[in-house]
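Comment thread on ticket #2218

A.B. wrote:
> Attaching the input chain for the structure job we discussed in standup.
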Amino acid sequence: MVRRLPRLRAARVGAALAALLIAGCAAAALAAAYSEQSVGTPGQVAWVRRAAGNFLAAELARNPGAACAILDRRLRGTVRHRTCEQRMDARMRAMLGAPGARSRLRGQVRAARSAKVIVHGNLASIDLPAPLLNGPNEFRWTENCWMLEH
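C.D. wrote:
> Ran it. Output below, let me know if you need it in another format.
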């Protein structure tokens, strides 16, 4: 003889199973976002990804001031009588003038959200399909935030 659960009790069991499924999916999504290949605390990894995403968003919006705000102070200085904003504006104008540049930048923004990040002390690197500037994608912890160094 098969014993049936009352409908109310069966509904509670179903709701509990649904809650467990949702919690499991959320945990899996969080683990994927952190990326098992990344090194550093989840907060450090997220902060480096956010800094890279903010730099890319500034380039996409053609906002040289916002892009310079993420650069290490050595890169923000005046070079050959041109301020950081002037140099970044010229760089962005040339870069965004190329065919497909905006879609490549949007792809970089998406990639930054889950990119592999390696943090060692006050240095961090992020693995993106293309360099953010000329050279490796390295950040330095300075001025109480991660600043793009190269």
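A.B. wrote:
> Thanks. Noting for the ticket: The two ends are 73 Å apart (CA to CA).
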